[in-house]
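Slide 14.
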Amino acid sequence: MIGLTIAGFDPSGGAGILTDVKTMAAHGIHGTSVITALTAQNPKKVFSVKEIPTTYIREQIDSIFEEYDIKYSKTGLLYSKEIIKLVSKKVEEYDLNIVIDPVMVASAGDMLTNGGIIKPLKKYLLPKSLLITPNISEAEELSGIKIKNIEDAKEAAYKIGKYCNVIITGGHLDGNNVIYTQENNEITLIKQELIKTDNLHGTGCSFSAAILSNLIINENKKNHNNLELSIKNSLDFIYQSVKHGRYGTLNPNFNNIQ
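Slide 15: predicted structure.
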């Protein structure tokens, strides 16, 4: 079972490509990766971001698909409009089911993109995507709605849901994850206990990578409601990962906590 992440590189290992691959490995998935940007950062500060040329991103993608048959992918940091347009073309070319983690700002609060990605995301990539996984601030940018409570989040989810399925993660909604699926045209809430911890760097990356992994697993098992089940399993995975302070060390059954 093989998955693909298209994202940025975090040398601290807490987010981006490294966390995506560790999360996939924890689920028994072989992770392939395409790097879109190099960052110099740690959990507390981003020092710089270097964009990878689209010609080289294209070559990375094509080299992987020359060898592997991949159905599911995810994105993380897509630094610019040009990168988003390229990824959109490749999603269509290779008929990918893709999960979008709309990375804009690092956990430390530093900007990671050139600031012009919202319109191209909505124009080029989201209509071709299976799911997008914004946090509150990302959902506000995508929807244009200020989110102060669950009702605001529901309104934002409906608006973003015009493009693709969406889960607005509940870290700043008292643990309420707001899910909208186009198939059912309805909102579902999944509430989780919030854990007081500073161990949150890269949780968005790990969550979207866990969804990617569970989509592959559930399709292999021919499970119905693949997307909904994958989201639920991934929320459990992240909860256990944060609770035990380790990313990429848990299998889907949580039986190997060290």
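Speaker note: The first strand starts at residue 2 and ends at 9.
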